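Long-time lurker, first post. I've been practising inverse folding by hand and with some scripts of my own, and I keep getting stuck on stretches where the structure tokens seem ambiguous. Below is the full token string for one chain I'm working on. Before anyone asks, I'm not after the true native sequence, just a reasonable design that respects the backbone. If someone could post their per-position residues I'd love to compare against what I wrote down in my notebook.
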């Protein structure tokens, strides 16, 4: 993007960032109510905030080659997210890296051998041909670099109005494939909470739940990724982390296009129910607070979500359950109690006016 952060004042009520154009050297100051630090493992913003990372920083190292080659023609219908090769002279992994013929070839490097060898494009192309098994392949090598695997966690994910996400908050090894998943889930969690606060649907204390909810999940995944035994666990030990997940994915029947229950979530609250008497619908329409949409499900879909006949499940925008009821007994009181458990709005929101403005 040609812009770098050269100064940061993370006061408690807002953030002031000094940006510099790397080509012209010109600087400008930007004021914002909130700042999201998504600037990677070597986060400039995290360092400016004085937040330390804890954990091993050099567990292993790999040499990665970004290249282009028509490998999909070779693979045909055998399409996967990662391909491991065991050639004795070119053992590594091939990973699709975008549309068309973009790929990454990764080879692990022994940290005991310092430094990592500097491969030329010709040497990388030779290794790619060996790994794939095509001597006449002519890959176009775009870039070669090294990257180090770490298992680290930031001491805290917030400083005033600044928040850490992704590799700035946690570094997870590729083992188990949870690094990107953790980053996306945490960013989504922070995103909807910021949206609620900025729209006046919740008070700023809602943002305190970001680190409280997501950092323990990241800590679990960081520790697991650093364990040589990987995913070998007793199921009972995994339940506390799994129970903090989102609503189940279930395909809805009788749709022209495939729709998942996850697609029914909105920017506000979503109430899933199978109540034919519409008592949950009436209760939802009478309660002030964040926007609340009712989704009536068929019996098969509801069963897949764990909702009994007449029961209901209340979900947040990120799919995390905010309430579950096995029957329609006192739906008005049940919903009010669940919504009151959320941080109180900074101001009341008239959902009818919100809906009218949206239209």
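-- Answer (accepted) --
I ran through it position by position. Result:
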């Amino acid at each position: 993007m040609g812009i770098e952060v050269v100064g940061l004042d993370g006061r408690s009520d807002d953030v002031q960032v000094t940006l510099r154009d790397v080509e012209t050297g010109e600087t400008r100051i930007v004021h914002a109510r909130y700042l999201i630090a998504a600037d990677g493992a070597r986060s400039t913003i995290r360092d400016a905030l004085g937040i330390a990372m804890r954990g091993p920083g050099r567990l292993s190292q790999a040499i990665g080659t970004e290249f282009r080659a028509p490998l999909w023609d070779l693979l045909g219908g055998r399409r996967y997210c990662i391909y491991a090769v065991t050639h004795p002279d070119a053992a590594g992994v091939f990973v699709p890296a975008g549309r068309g013929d973009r790929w990454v070839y990764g080879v692990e490097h022994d940290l005991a051998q310092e430094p990592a060898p500097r491969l030329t494009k010709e040497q990388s192309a030779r290794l790619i041909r060996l790994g794939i098994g095509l001597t006449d392949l002519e890959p176009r090598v775009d870039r070669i670099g090294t990257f180090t695997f770490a298992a680290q966690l930031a001491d805290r994910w917030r400083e005033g109005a600044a928040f850490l996400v992704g590799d700035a908050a946690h570094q997870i090894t590729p083992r188990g494939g949870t690094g990107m998943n953790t980053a996306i889930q945490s960013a989504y969690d922070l995103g909807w909470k910021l949206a609620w606060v900025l729209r006046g649907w919740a008070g700023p204390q809602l943002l305190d739940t970001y680190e409280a909810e997501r950092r323990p999940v990241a800590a679990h995944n960081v520790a697991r990724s650093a364990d040589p035994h990987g995913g070998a666990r007793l199921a009972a030990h995994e339940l506390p982390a799994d129970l903090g997940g989102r609503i189940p994915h279930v395909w809805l029947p009788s749709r022209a296009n495939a729709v998942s229950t996850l697609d029914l979530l909105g920017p506000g609250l979503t109430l899933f129910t199978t109540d034919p008497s519409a008592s949950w619908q009436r209760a939802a329409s009478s309660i002030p607070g964040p926007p609340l949409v009712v989704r009536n499900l068929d019996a098969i879909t509801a069963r897949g979500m764990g909702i009994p006949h007449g029961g209901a499940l209340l979900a947040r925008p990120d799919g995390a359950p905010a309430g579950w009821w096995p029957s329609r007994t006192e739906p008005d009181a049940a919903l009010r109690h669940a919504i009151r458990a959320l941080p109180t709005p900074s101001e009341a929101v008239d959902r009818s006016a919100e809906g009218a403005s949206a239209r």
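A couple of notes from the structure itself: Residues 179-199 form the longest helix (21 residues). The two ends are 36 Å apart (CA to CA). Happy to go over any region you disagree with.
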